[in-house]
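Feature request, filed as a ticket because there's no other form

It would be nice if the structure record came with a short human-readable summary line next to the tokens. Right now we just get the raw output. Example of a typical job, pasted below so the devs can see what we mean:
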Amino acid sequence: MLHTRSRASMIHRLSLSIWGLFLALLLLLAAAGYVAMRVAADKIVPMLAQHTVELRANASEGLFPQAERSVARLQHELLWRLARTDHEATLARFDTLFARSPDGLWRLRPELVNAESAPTLYLHQTPQGLSESVRLRAVVAYDLLREQGPALAPPFFSVYMDFVEDGLMVYSPGIDWGNGADASATNTGYPTMQGSEPRRNPLRKVFWTPVYLDKQANTWMVSVIKPLDWQGQWVGTVGHDVSIQTLLDKVSASSDDTATQLILSATGDLIAHPQLRQRIAAANGQLKVSTLNDPLLTQVHRMIERSGADKGAGRTPDGSQWVAWAKIQGPGWYQVLLLPQARVNLLLAWGLAALFGLGALGLLPALWLLRRRVRSLVAQPLQRLTKAVDELGQGGEPQPIAMASDDELGHLAEAFDAMVEELVQKRAMQFAHARALQTEVDERRRFMTRLEEERARLLALLGAMKLSVLLVGSNDQVIYCNAAFLAMWGIPEGTTLVGRTTLEGLESAKHLMQDPELVAEQRINSVANRDKPLQLEIRLRDGRIITHHSHPVHDAHGHYIGRLWVQEDVTHEREVAAQLVRLAEHDALTDLYNRRRFEDELSRFFHDAERTPSQAALLFFDLDEFKYINDTFGHRAGDTVLNQVAIEARPLVRDTDTLFRLGGDEFAVFMPHATLDDAQHLADRIVRNIAQTPQTVQAQSMRLTTSLGIAHFPSHANNAEELVAHADTAMYMAKHAGKNRWSIYHPDRDLSREMASRLAWNDRIARALDNNLLRLHFQGVYHTGNGHLAHLEALIRMEDEANPGQLIMPAQFIGQAEKSGKILDIDRWVIHESIRLLAVHPHLPGIAINISGRSFDDPDLPGFISSQLQEQHVAARRLLVELTETAAVSDMGDAARFIAALRRTGCSICLDDFGTGFSSFAYLKHLKADVLKIDGMFIRDLPLEIDNQVFVRAIIEVAHGMGKQTVAEFVEDGRTLLMLREMGVDMVQGYHMDKPKADHPALRHPSAGQRH
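Raw output as currently delivered:
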């Protein structure tokens, strides 16, 4: 059967030609019109945007200039009144207005407090008492704010005056600031005071504070401040709080799909943005543009910064946005309008469509008339000829055309009739040959169909891969590349690399590479070494790392036909590995090397010392009476002191030496290849520097001292263990010698003193067990989601027999008890007492107890726990046994067997201090714990430590994936609690909820302490 070929009629082609001619003319006119509209838009758009943003800036200024004038007037009025006041009468009136409260603060007398119509005051008593200047200013400021405050608020939120002597006089309708303050209230260090200090504001100008959220009013504010100088001295400030909530709401409400409104400070802080309100709020009202990694906002800030003008308009460097800005008087912000170029292009497209439509309406009638004329002259004669041709093409027997016309169409008809006679004779021969060809074609078509299906499957597989794949022929031309390859090298999607050489294909990506010549050299090597696989690591300028693998490809006969390129972006994997290595070797608090790195350094040194004789010194030191700071001011203050000590000690250590934090307040300095004299010089510098550096803890200045011990290799030790033990002993020798000094290890003074101290503590612990001097304190562990009490943790204390009522903390005696073995008796006492309390308080959810690592060697302890639970009729699930990770890991086999025995009793198992070891996650496979307690070193300052946040999230995800619960300890503030709740931690414990106490509310009655 012959294939029928479709034919287009002459009239149709002629009509298309005419249509094409008119369409070309129409497109030319439309293009000219579009260019004209585009040029006009580039001039009009910035003018309109500039005018719009100026109107919005003028509307946004609001109260700012008025507030500046108001504080300047108030400052002038206050100074004028101070200059003319009667000192004796005013000083006498001070005592009638103000009185000192029991907490030491001066406040307005209670019978005079009227927060609706008069200001309130809190003022600290200075060590020398209140000066005459302070009392005069307090009385005059009180009268001034009482007279003029109600008229100024509103429009302003408040009007106030700061005292350099640490006090505040403020009027805000209905708010009693004086009674709301306590003895810790202070304005020292506030931006209002810092910006008024003469050294920072020598010209005594009015200035604006950063944006802040007033939690009492639940609104965003800024403050305008005027420094107050009197009698040649700086004595305070005068200021207004101005609410900007309405301004922020207007910015959000005014933005739509057409344009975006925002407010930006001159220093690159984002004050208002309709899509970033929550992030701005989280950044305390001022979000750094540089932290957003937003190319558009970065370009906008640079345009405003480089212009140096208060207003302007222009297009961003990438051409995507029109930007117009105008300065808001007062705080110096900029009202910014962003108009997408795409929106302008859309309007131009609509104009082009309208122009095109009008042209089309004018041409349609002319085209219709022309078509009718062509049809009458050409179409009808051609129809007869076409019909005959179609019959012939379909295998029929056409009749002679016999067209009578003598024009070109008539001659064509005669030639057609002659051709028909010849074709009829040949048709028979062609039909037989066509059948044979059709059979061959059908077979090849089936083969090609199968081949195409296989090709489609292969392309789908390669296209779905995240690895970039490139197939190169033997002539170095690209045969195939997937979408991942184009995306990896920034090649626009849709770009065709097939048929181009690899050199041409990577030419556009050379600017991304740090070393393009290395890639070019690898390409040459792949041509020279066809049969060898090659691999290369390509580093890009943006920090990415690409691994490149090139494999030769051979056909079924072993002939080389090209190469396969496989490339992978391994940047993330490298970054994660580097971060984990850093977490493993660095202390999270001080960023010094940790105990793990310390042990590695010692091991490496002594391994090298076996081949190359050398010498080294080790310095151990800790802070004297550091426990007092933790117990008195809390662990956060202790962390601050440790950080400061690390900062002070780091510059004293040579580049060849290494400073470590081993844990708690223990530090070490390892000095390879150092003499004993070198160690003594460094020890003297460290002890003197720490003693001479004042430490400020919660506004209290104090000086700490340190005790330092020195051990030298090979003088004092033969291996790493002896060197560490002898440095530690030397440190305690320094403590016994009076502290605030250093000591060199002396073998003759080692064992006797240590044994005496150990025997003394053994005797005290034995008497405490015999005379019932051990005490339990309890701290609550709460469910993060609803705040309900999950259980209590039992914490042991010892009553000092020499000072009844005075408690000894466990850090002082637990270590001695572990060395002597008395810890086993203490563990059993804690177990017995905790189970007894669970029996007495059946409403209590449970109690967690801490078990020493020494108890792993006691095979009878699980049975003892089980018998105590049965005797007291207490459900085993109410007893949670906590084991420290370090103790469990020190002997994995004994720990695993001990945990298995405990689980058979029905008790829950908690792995305490989780995360202190780098391989903590691996331990979970062997230690079948139910609960993981994340070590406090990762929780303290969690909102400020990005590395700790990454590690804590990883612990939570792994624990939940393994069906375990998590507890976060040392939760000491609300921000940390909120962050842990968002991360998904199950339970929390710390001073933010409650402190350890003997009479915990949960032990009093069923409802007490059940919710925090």
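Something like this underneath would help us a lot:
The CA atoms of residues 616 and 673 lie 5 Å apart.
The chain has a mean pLDDT of 82.
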